What we know:
The chain is an alpha+beta fold. It has a domain at 31-127: Immunoglobulin-like, CATH 2.60.40.790. It has helices at residues 10-20, 135-142, and strands at 34-39, 42-48, 58-62, 65-72, 89-96, 107-111, 114-120. The strands form two sheets. Strands 1-2-7-6 form a four-stranded antiparallel beta sheet, with no helix packed on it. Strand 6 and strand 7 form a beta hairpin. The protein is elongated, with a radius of gyration of 24 Å. The N and C termini lie far apart (90 Å). It comes from Nocardioides bigeumensis. Belongs to the small heat shock protein (HSP20) family.
Amino acid sequence: MLLRTADPFRDFDRLAAQLLGSTGTTNRPAVMPVDAWREGDTFVLEFDLPGVSAESIDLDVERNVLTVRAERVGRNGDWEMLASERPRGMFSRQLVLGDNLDLERIEASYDAGVLRLTVPVAEKAKPRKIEIASGAERTAIEA
Length: 143
């Protein structure tokens, strides 16, 4: 059972932890946390969105800017809040993606509160071999 205490310094402690960058359990993230890494020819992003319905997630790409918007709705009805540490309402995150990614082929999936985006590396950004013509071949071509 969760008990509500009459500690007047609890909110002050939470604010101080946020401002000082403490990693305590009361520190609420200012934005949705994201992990990003590269797997071969694919760039992967994972956003933590616990308690968010898939229908409330909105993804946009304009030029090289990826915008993720989501909403965690509050509860309605006859109930009493005992603790409130998870942010509610609309929140968003923008990331600037490099020119070396193929933004036309982004794929997205949502499972267990994690939004996963996979973005392939653009063909023009992949390493390629360049053939070198020898002097004899160049002379034959020019003749």
